[in-house]
Amino acid sequence: MSKPVRTAVFPVAGLGTRFLPATKASPKEMLPVVDKPLIQYAVEEALAAGVETLVFVTSRNKRAIEDHFDRVYELENELLEREKPELLERIKDIIPRTAASVYIRQSAALGLGHAVLCAAPVIGNEPFYVILADDLIDVPGKEKNVLQQMLDVYHEYDCSVVALERVPHDHVSRYGIVQPRKVDQKIFSIESIVEKPTSDEAPSDLAVIGRYLLMPEILSCLEKTGRGRGGEIQLTDALELLLSQNPLLGYAFEGKRYDCGDKLGYLEACMEFGLKHPELKEEFKAYLLKRIALLDR
Ligand code: G1P
Q: What stretch of H or E contains 290?
């Protein structure tokens, strides 16, 4: 029987330079898509998958994330007095009821692998998720979110699983890229993995997207991993080490990913989530149709 996956690690210490100046004083994970910040979508996904401990690996300037998942008594009282019960519920609902939150500082900007290693004392000897909040994954019409889909694969094969998506060949240098061997339509056994290769070096067009379900053995691999691409300790390099001793699967998930670490991807997400937002969709669609008609003039 495979162990349950009860911990999720959210590496949120990055500088968010691609979104400057918006991210000068506030975290990129707090960028809103319509009315919810990116990190809240990620936390909701983890809670829906049954996670009981949320580990945020933070840095300076990330206080807003802690505050977002905590109570604000002044605001609650104000909403109570103004008789706005729906808004009150909405802000209270943000606070995870079924999970504990742990905040760990990543004191040196040494990359994603180092961030995951910072969470090791909380992870212990259990499998865990790593969730990159700037990859926002929507699963319209699907029963299971991407973590729940990966959990099914993990329960079947009892090994680490990373989310995969095929990307345009000229984008491979933005991702960890795998050399896959097909197991079935959606599952691949990973034979090697390389961080941000050039398009000539890339072993395929299958990229790792920001969802990982990892066995605890990755932690000892991370301890042995030196600085790689960009002078940082790369999770990808630790995965390459892991797969020399343990199976590693890639899972081509069902759903639509928005790269919200990129301005265009972020705008696309805002547009799509606006078009299905219960309070906005009709008016927003009418506005867009009118606006598009003007584009060619
Ligand atoms: C990180 C990982 C990369 C992965 C990507 C997914 O890169 O290092 O392997 O493909 O996330 O979003 P980053 O986007 O942080 O540069």
A: helix 281-295
